[in-house]
Amino acid sequence: MDLIFFRRILSRVEGAYYFRPGVDYDFLKNANGQKFGGGAALIWSRASEPVQTPGNKPDLGVELDLQLYFQAKDGSLNDDPKKVGGFYTMLQYGVFFPLGGLGYLPGQTAGKTLQAGDSSWDLSTAQTIRWFIGVVY
Predict the structure, then answer these.
(1) The model's pTM
(2) CA-to-CA dists, residue 75 to 35, 82, 95, 125, angstroms
(3) What pLDDT score does 107 carry?
(4) Which residues are CB-neighbours of 44 under 8 A, at least 6 positions away?
């Protein structure tokens, strides 16, 4: 359902819910199975109870996932347009923007109290790029 937050950071959807509007579109689609397309999804993640988060806020983060894909025609091995086959590749990019629920309360960091002169932990964006390549048969 996403590329970064629930897949890599939390490793499951637990104690949270999300809204995921998305769109996929084939720019080129032939009867022989060849296609080229892309997609985009925006995932807004929230905690079911704000007290479950380090920052005591419900909003966990917003993620934007993009993808481009291409599938070549099956070639001379198969002339039946109902059967899909051929070379396939997909490039995915995701960026996750953490929100207040993943932060810490003022004066707190990673379970300990900040002392005078310590700097607080700063949340930053996470990014990923994935490339798939294969043969569909």
Answers:
(1) 0.77
(2) 13, 14, 36, 43
(3) 63
(4) 18, 19, 20, 59, 61, 62
